[in-house]
Design brief:
By secondary structure, the chain is an alpha/beta fold. Helices cover 48% and strands 17% of the residues. The strands form 2 sheets. A 7-stranded parallel sheet has the order 3-2-1-4-5-6-7, with helices on both faces. Strands 10-9-8-11-12-13 form a 6-stranded parallel sheet, sandwiched between helices. Helix 9 links the parallel strand 8 (188-192) and strand 9 (218-223). The chain has 17 helices and 13 strands.
Length: 374
């Protein structure tokens, strides 16, 4: 069968590449065409556009590149209709992908099945998008267990929880790299300050200032893909800090504690059993706190707390973000402190909630089975 995949960022490229390999196992005749990245290209098929040509973040960049965005969307729609796939698989990236789903739904004649892998995070904001999802998406495949009651109980829209690919990836790494082989001295505090320059600029200086109070630890920064060392040097300024690139899992596997900017990194840190403090500086912090309390539809910003549905890790967001608070919370999770053991117990609950099934394998089996029945 023919599968058309659409991703808009690096994480989508990773998850989609694994799904493609799983689809090949279930469907030896699988053909792929996609908007994706290098990892998907390595699996095989035809890449129509690289996701880097799609990824514009923030109001101003989007506004400046509207013509390119519309041109890419028109190309995608035309290409799908010409290739006539059996299924279009949308991977996260809702601003673009939900518009593609709407277009395909309207063009009902010979339209492909519309599958959404890694569902849009409408439980956090833009909950109104549920109307589009119900209307335009045939099957939704979730990687977060708390999304099941949100979609099925609150919105009466059945979905498939297939497992969590981040948990799969961490398990695979640990199987190949047993933890007893890594005992660094002095112990490491890992700094994961985000994947974008603005996040790094906002969070890394306070993180670095906070860890100065812990001279018995070495500080290692996880360099984000595509961010050169020179950018980090602006903030490090000759301090005794190491930067590592493309080795985040290796770093976490050797770390004693971590300071982490919210995102998938918080879940990765938890799955490596590394106690952490979540740090996220925002502009106009009091306004952000008000919005978080009264407008945003979720209680937490970290995947760790969202999955546990309670505060397992401290979230120093907006008005709680300060060097003093980072330092105090970090001190509570170092070896010998009661906060450390409590957090590690919370991590066990998260692993149980995620399960131990292989997300892309489960999703691929379901997709092929549904297509064969249609």
């Amino acid at each position: 069968m023919k599968y058309y995949l659409i991703v808009g960022e690096a994480s989508g490229d990773l998850h989609a590449s694994h799904l493609m390999r799983s689809l090949q196992k279930e469907d030896p005749e699988a053909q792929f065409r996609f908007f994706g990245g290098d990892l998907m290209t390595a699996v095989g098929g035809t890449r129509v556009k690289h996701y880097k040509e799609l990824a514009y973040m923030g109001f101003v960049p989007v506004l400046l590149h509207l013509r390119t965005i519309f041109r890419n969307m028109a190309l995608c729609k035309k290409d799908i209709m010409q290739w006539q796939p059996d299924a279009v698989i949308l991977v996260d990236y809702p601003g673009f992908n939900l518009k593609i789903a709407k277009y395909l739904h309207k063009n009902r004649k010979n339209r492909p099945a519309i599958y959404y892998y890694i569902s849009p995070k409408i439980w956090a904001w833009k909950e109104y998008r549920i109307k589009n999802i119900k209307r335009d998406v045939d099957e939704l495949f979730s990687i977060l267990p708390f999304e099941v009651p949100f979609f099925e109980q609150k919105h009466h829209y059945p979905i498939h929880y297939v497992g969590n690919p981040t948990a799969d990836e961490v398990r695979s790494f640990l199987e190949d790299n047993p933890p007893h082989l890594r005992t660094p001295a002095p112990p490491i505090i890992a700094l994961l300050a985000g994947s974008r320059k603005q996040e790094i600029k906002d969070n890394l200086p306070a993180m670095l200032e906070a860890v100065k109070q812990f001279p018995d630890y070495q500080c290692v920064v996880a360099g984000a893909p595509g961010i050169e060392d020179a950018y980090y040097e602006e903030f490090i300024k000759g301090a005794s800090v190491e930067i590592v690139h493309d080795k985040t899992y290796d770093l976490l596997s050797r770390s004693t504690a971590a300071l982490v900017t919210s995102g998938t990194a918080t879940l990765e840190t938890a799955l490596f059993n590394v106690p952490q403090v979540v740090c996220y500086k925002t502009p106009v912090p009091r306004l952000i706190r008000f919005a978080f309390n009264h407008i945003i539809k979720c209680k937490y910003i970290s995947l760790v707390n969202l999955i546990a549905d309670k505060e397992v890790v401290q979230e120093l967001l907006a008005d709680r973000f300060s060097v003093k608070n980072i330092r105090e919370e970090l001190s509570k999770i170092l070896p010998g402190q009661t906060g450390r053991e409590q957090m590690l117990q919370g991590y066990e609950e998260i692993r149980t909630a995620l399960g131990d099934t292989c997300a892309p394998d489960n999703a691929a089996k379901l997709m092929v089975s549904l297509l064969e029945k249609s």
